[in-house]
């Protein structure tokens, strides 16, 4: 399948055509009706990430029967309801694959154990329907450029676009990535992701923190040919790379508005844009990674320009952590979001609570509740999202239970 460049208007027309003919689209309900028989708290985001990559949260392992997979999924949704959460962010495209019957990419191996094998049911369609039936929002979480957590293209399904277009792929750090510098790659990944928005009434499209890959010492991301061809108008390779990611964000936002108005667009970046030592506008941190410089993602600009509807910086550090203090970063992000139309939620490291090897702060079940108390002092913070669903369910030291008891006494609808 040869993918050329598409204008946004042509892209939207093609997507709308797909919407009219998508298999099974009618089986998923449209506008849903939430019934709340109890008092509601003020609107705030109470979300949980449900990761499928490497079977992190769900399915618990590859190769389960369709019924077992569905039962596990429903259990995660029911747990979210019990904890008075209101949003599930389901990873539906973990490695250039799909958890729905996509015409562009193969079925995910994390379902059956074999990439491209039909699991016998529609996980995303079921998730949307069952989440809405429970009064939950369902945000579809996509990873735009990661192709595989290995570097062997022959392990991909024979029909995989990365095998048919090997020039699109860059091996780096033991993984395979689509090259963000190629316009045809950007057009393809946008179309592949938008197919889910066309088919299902998801409440939002969600990107995580992977744009250009995290730096690996001693290795170079080989995009020389793309830079030589397309980077001539830029003063540096870094500026060109940032422009590639900016285009992905702007074009995705525009396409979502074309094909399903009202569906939101959110991004969850690494929590440090730039350290103040690098840029006076940055945070008073000493982080080893800076999204602007290392992942080529200008997350601050996306918020200030309202390119996205919400941002969920991953503030996965405890209060008082010297290199990246949670309190310092909440204050910095609140100032970034102030006066903008981009809503700010905070990404919380529930997975660290009680985990072996974590410092004493994370062994205290009250640490996470303190985060919500601190963030509650900032009107710009409209809620929190917890990583991740397996940890919500297990809750080894009761950190999530403490959050619910201290902060989630009543249900709340998500902010809009």
From TrEMBL:
Gene3D superfamilies: Glycosidases. InterPro entries: Divisome_Glycosyl_Hydrolase, GH, GHL10. Keywords: Signal. PANTHER family: GLYCOSYL HYDROLASE DIGH. This is Glycosyl hydrolase-like 10 domain-containing protein. Residues 44-359 form the Glycosyl hydrolase-like domain. It comes from Streptomyces diastatochromogenes. The keyword Signal applies. Residues 1-22 form the signal peptide. It comes from the Bacteria.
